Structure to design on (513 residues):
C-alpha cells in the first residue's frame, strides 16, 4: 500500500491535544476550548456516535447553523470514520428529501428551530426516525438530546482504523430542485487541504483564523483544515456581520480570514476597518467570485499587501493569486499552486494558446473521488484524471489564469459567444450600479439575447436610461442588452454567490404572465 493512502485527518486534533494542550483551539461566542478540552469534547461525541448503531462509513447529516457543535461534528466524524454530510440550514422540503436520501444518512443533528423542517418530510425519509434526530439545544421527549448523548461518555481517544482512501465528507453543490451532486472528499484530500493550503496561505501555529461565513461552505475548509493541521486558533462567528468581524480582528489579533466579494465590500464600508486597526492581519482571501479591481486597490490601501484571491471548485481544483502577484496581475485569478496542473482546451479537447478562450481543465491532489452514486456525471466531469470545470478562461504568457465566464452561462447570440462578465464590467462603470447579473433569454431572431438585473445605489436612475448608457459602451452589437430590471436583492446560495439562474427563471416567468 502506498504511503499516501495512510494520510488521514483522524489524528490531527489528538496531536494538538498532546503537543499543544493549553493553546486556544476554538472559539465561538463566549465558548472557548483549548485543544485538550476540544479533543475531550469531540471524543465524547465520537463515543456517543459509536454507542448507537453507527459504523465506520455510515453517513451523518448536520442540519445546523454555525455553532460549536458543528465544529465538534466535523472532527468526531474524522476520528470515527463516519462520513460528514453538512447540509445548508436554508434547504427545505423536496431539497431536504433529495439530499438526505441521496446521502443514505442514518442520523441527523439539528436544532429546535430547524427540526420541524425535518419532521415535515419524515414520511419521505425511510432511513430516519425521530430517534435518529439529535437536537443540540433542547431535551425533548420526541427527539434525542445531543448533549445527553455525550454526557458521561469517555474522553479517551478513538482508535478507528483509517486510511486516506476512506471517504470523509459529502458536500452537496446542488439538489434543491434537480438531481443532487454529492461531492465526495476522502481523508487524503482533506489532509492535502490542511498541509498544502497552510503552506500557500502562510498559516502557522501562531496564526489566529477567523471565519464568519457558513462553515458548511467548502471555501471554509481552505482555512478550517490548515488551522487544525498547524494547531492554530480558529474563531467562528454565528453569521457574517461586518461590524462584529472588524471588532474581532482588533480584539483577537486575527491574522487570517476568508470572505466572498459581497462580504469584502460590506467590510470596506465599516469606519473602523482602517490600517491602524488591522495591524495583525496577514491574509484576506477572496473566494467564490472575482473581486473588482477597484475593491482590490481599496483593500491594499487599508491593509497593505495581505490580499489573496482564489478561483476554485469544490470538485477539486484551484488557482491562487498570491499577495506578491496582485500588483503585476491585478485582473488575474492567479496560477496553479505546486502539485496542481492546468490547461485551457477547446470543445474538441485541443489545448489553446495563451490569450485564447477555452474551458479550464485541471488536476490536483484534491480532486474529488466521485459524485456520490452518480457514475455518469462523474465520468463527464473527470476524464483521465483531469477535472473539466465548466468554466471559461484563458492564460497569459506567464501562465496566469483570467476568468471569462461559466460555460453554462454563456450566451450564444447570432452564433457568437457572448460572455455575461464582459457586459457586467460595463455596468459596474456606472456609479449607480451596486450589483449586476447578466443572463441570456430566448430570442426569435438571434437565438438568445442578453438581459441584466441590477441593484442600484441611486433609485432615481431609470432602467431604460441605464440600458441605453450601457449599450453605447459595449464593444459589439451582440453585447447590447435587451432589457434592464431593477431588484432590491439578489438570491444567494449558502456561499454568498449570486444565483444567476434563479434570477433568469424569475424574469422569464414575469414576462409570461
Amino acid at each position: 500500500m502506498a504511503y499516501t493512502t495512510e494520510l488521514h485527518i483522524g489524528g490531527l486534533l489528538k496531536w494538538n491535544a498532546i503537543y499543544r494542550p493549553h493553546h486556544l483551539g476554538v472559539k465561538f461566542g463566549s465558548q472557548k476550548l483549548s485543544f485538550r478540552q476540544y479533543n475531550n469534547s469531540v471524543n465524547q461525541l465520537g463515543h456517543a456516535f459509536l454507542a448507537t448503531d453507527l459504523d465506520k462509513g455510515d453517513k451523518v447529516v448536520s442540519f445546523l447553523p454555525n455553532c460549536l457543535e458543528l465544529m465538534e461534528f466535523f472532527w468526531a466524524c474524522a476520528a470515527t470514520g463516519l462520513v460528514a454530510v453538512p447540509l445548508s440550514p436554508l434547504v427545505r422540503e423536496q431539497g431536504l428529501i433529495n439530499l438526505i436520501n441521496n446521502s443514505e444518512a442514518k442520523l441527523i443533528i439539528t436544532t429546535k428551530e430547524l427540526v420541524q423542517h425535518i419532521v415535515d418530510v419524515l414520511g419521505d425519509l425511510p432511513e430516519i426516525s425521530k430517534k435518529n434526530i439529535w437536537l443540540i439545544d433542547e431535551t425533548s421527549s420526541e427527539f434525542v438530546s445531543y448533549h445527553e448523548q455525550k454526557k458521561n461518555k469517555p474522553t479517551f481517544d478513538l482508535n478507528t482504523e483509517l486510511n486516506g482512501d476512506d471517504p470523509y465528507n459529502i458536500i452537496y453543490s446542488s439538489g434543491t430542485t434537480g438531481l443532487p451532486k454529492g461531492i465526495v472528499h476522502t481523508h487524503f484530500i482533506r489532509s492535502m487541504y490542511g498541509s498544502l493550503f497552510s503552506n500557500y496561505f502562510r498559516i502557522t501555529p501562531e496564526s489566529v483564523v477567523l471565519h464568519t461565513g457558513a462553515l458548511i461552505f467548502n471555501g471554509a475548509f481552505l482555512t478550517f483544515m490548515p488551522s487544525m493541521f498547524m494547531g492554530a486558533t480558529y474563531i467562528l462567528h454565528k453569521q457574517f456581520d461586518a461590524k462584529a468581524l472588524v471588532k474581532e480582528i482588533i480584539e483577537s489579533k486575527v491574522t487570517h480570514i476568508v470572505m466572498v466579494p459581497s462580504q469584502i465590500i460590506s467590510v470596506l464600508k465599516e469606519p473602523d476597518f482602517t490600517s491602524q486597526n488591522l495591524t495583525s492581519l496577514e491574509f484576506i482571501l477572496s473566494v467564490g467570485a472575482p473581486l473588482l479591481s477597484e475593491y482590490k486597490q481599496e483593500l491594499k490601501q487599508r491593509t497593505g499587501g495581505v490580499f489573496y484571491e482564489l478561483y476554485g471548485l469544490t470538485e477539486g481544483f484551484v488557482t491562487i493569486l498570491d499577495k506578491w502577484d496582485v500588483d503585476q496581475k491585478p485582473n488575474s485569478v492567479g496560477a496553479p499552486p505546486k502539485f496542481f496542473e492546468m490547461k485551457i482546451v477547446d470543445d474538441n479537447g485541443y489545448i489553446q494558446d495563451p490569450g485564447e478562450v477555452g474551458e479550464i481543465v485541471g488536476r490536483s491532489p484534491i480532486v474529488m473521488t466521485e459524485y456520490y452514486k452518480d457514475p455518469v456525471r462523474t465520468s463527464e466531469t473527470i476524464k483521465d484524471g483531469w477535472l473539466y470545470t465548466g468554466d471559461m478562461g484563458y492564460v497569459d504568457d506567464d501562465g496566469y489564469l483570467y476568468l471569462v465566464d461559466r460555460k453554462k452561462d454563456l450566451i450564444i447570440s447570432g452564433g457568437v459567444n457572448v460572455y455575461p462578465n464582459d457586459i457586467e464590467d460595463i455596468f459596474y462603470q456606472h456609479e449607480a450600479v451596486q450589483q449586476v447579473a447578466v443572463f441570456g433569454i430566448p430570442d426569435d431572431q438571434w437565438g438568445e439575447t442578453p438581459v441584466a438585473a441590477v441593484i442600484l445605489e441611486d433609485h432615481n436612475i431609470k432602467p431604460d436610461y441605464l440600458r441605453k448608457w450601457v449599450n453605447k459602451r459595449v464593444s459589439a452589437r451582440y453585447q447590447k442588452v435587451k432589457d434592464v430590471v431593477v431588484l432590491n436583492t439578489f438570491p444567494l446560495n449558502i456561499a454568498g454567490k449570486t444565483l444567476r439562474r434563479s434570477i433568469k427563471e424569475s424574469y422569464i416567468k414575469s414576462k409570461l404572465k
Remarks:
- The CA atoms of residues 42 and 73 lie 7 Å apart.
- The radius of gyration is 23 Å.
- Residues 3-186 form a domain with the Rossmann fold fold (CATH 3.40.50.980).
- The longest helix spans residues 35-51.
